[in-house]
Design a protein that fits this description.
It is built from twelve helices and 14 strands. With about 350 residues, it is α/β, with parallel strands linked by helices. Bound molecules: NADP nicotinamide-adenine-dinucleotide phosphate. The site of NADP nicotinamide-adenine-dinucleotide phosphate has 31 residues, from α1 and α12.
């Protein structure tokens, strides 16, 4: 019996997350990339830009027009914010579904979105039906969605790390701290002084300490999990490495939860999740343990009577972007959720 194959388009296939979609979908048993777009390289063979794919593809970059994308079953937007929402209506009208890796369909409050992203939302009606693509939170809704707003990389690591504690009501929701560090690929492939080798190598710094664009998205998730307004401090840092996010999360336990078995709480919460690995108590997960794979690995620690610490690591380009997007595609098209996503990590 031949299995149905999902025809996928990638808008922004020259970028880092677009390239990771290409690499992962190439191995997917039930998906085929049929359209790759780039405004700057339209007409160029894909393997000319990515010699690592020589011998494996005959695709040629095209312009990102709605007509070119209409023949796809699903389009991944691996583009800066503002692109997916400007094309969404036409693409949906052609019967094509959308997985947007940018922030266009992540935040339901359009006014808040405009404040952080500096533009009006182009299609609030489509935003309303869009589902936030964190399968561990919204799996059933994702299955039915026409539009998925794929989560940001930091919000994925933070949300998965705090979810069991918040759902159980075990922590004071105004004591949450997310101290997050990312490799430089998180900033995308476009040339910027801040991510030049000489600026990043042998250096380490925080940025966005007074407020980063992922803060409202993190707050939206944590509020939903806690069922009340939370107060989270989120500070991202730029690491002198290519990929990976390590997030150290802090919270104060409520007095009634001081003796709770938190390790059991987390193991129970994630035992059926194919892409979340609760490590043994006392572990220290590292970014190298998830390099190139769709996994969030985490571990719990206690310090002092009240403080709980969660260490959460992901690959920003995989569970933080392209792998999670494929996980969402699998759900949307009724495929095995893990299809194409079970390759092992690259280590060392
Ligand atoms: N990097 C990460 O770790 C990460 C993680 C989670 C989410 N994201 C999000 O995913 C999206 C892509 O990120 P990235 O890091 O892969 O970006 P990137 O490396 O900078 O690539 C951006 C891609 O978008 C295309 N593009 C730019 N402007 C466009 C436009 N107006 N219309 C059509 N295509 C356009 C570019 O190609 P052309 O200019 O040739 O068309 C390029 O292929 C962003 O929204 C980012 O915030 C990234």
């Amino acid at each position: 019996m031949t299995l149905p194959v999902v025809k996928a388009g990638i808008v922004g296939a020259t970028g880092y997350s677009g390239a990771e979609l290409l690499r992962l979908l190439k191995e997917h048993p039930q998906a085929e990339v049929t359209v790759v777009t780039s405004r700057s390289l339209a007409g160029t063979r894909l393997d000319q830009e990515f010699p690592s794919l020589r011998g494996q593809t005959d695709l040629v970059f095209s312009e990102p027009t709605a007509e070119a994308l209409a023949a796809c079953d699903v389009v991944f937007y691996a583009t800066p914010h503002g692109v997916a929402m400007s094309q969404a209506r036409e693409v949906l009208e052609a019967g094509t579904r959308i997985i947007d890796l940018s922030a266009d369909f992540r935040i339901q409050d359009t006014q808040l979105w405009s404040e952080w992203y500096g533009m009006e939302h182009a299609c609030p009606d489509i935003l309303k039906e869009a589902v936030y693509g964190l399968p561990e939170m919204y799996r059933d809704d994702i299955r039915k969605a026409r539009v998925v707003g794929n989560p940001g990389c930091y919000p994925t690591a933070v949300t998965l790390g705090l979810a069991p504690l918040l759902k159980a009501g075990f922590v004071d929701v105004d004591t949450l701290i997310a101290d997050s560090k990312s490799g430089a690929s998180g900033a995308g492939r476009g040339a910027k002084v801040g991510t030049l080798f000489c600026e990043v190598a042998e250096d380490f710094k925080a940025y966005g300490a007074t407020g980063h664009r992922h803060l409202p998205e993190i707050a939206q998730n944590l509020d939903a999990l806690a069922g009340t307004e939370t107060d989270v401090t989120f500070v991202p840092h730029l690491l002198p490495m290519v990929r990976g996010i390590e997030t150290t999360l802090y919270a104060n336990l409520k007095s009634e939860a001081l003796d709770a078995d938190l390790q059991a709480l987390y193991e129970q919460a994630y035992c059926d999740e194919p892409f979340v690995d609760m490590m043994p108590a006392g572990s220290h997960p590292s970014t190298g343990m998830v390099r190139g794979i769709n996994q969030c690995r985490m571990a719990l620690h206690r310090q002092g009577p009240k403080r709980v610490i969660v260490l959460s690591v992901i690959d920003n380009l995989i569970k933080g972007a392209s792998g999670q997007a494929i996980q969402n595609m699998n759900l949307m098209f009724g495929l095995d959720e893990t299809a194409g996503l079970m390759a092992g990590p690259v280590w060392p």
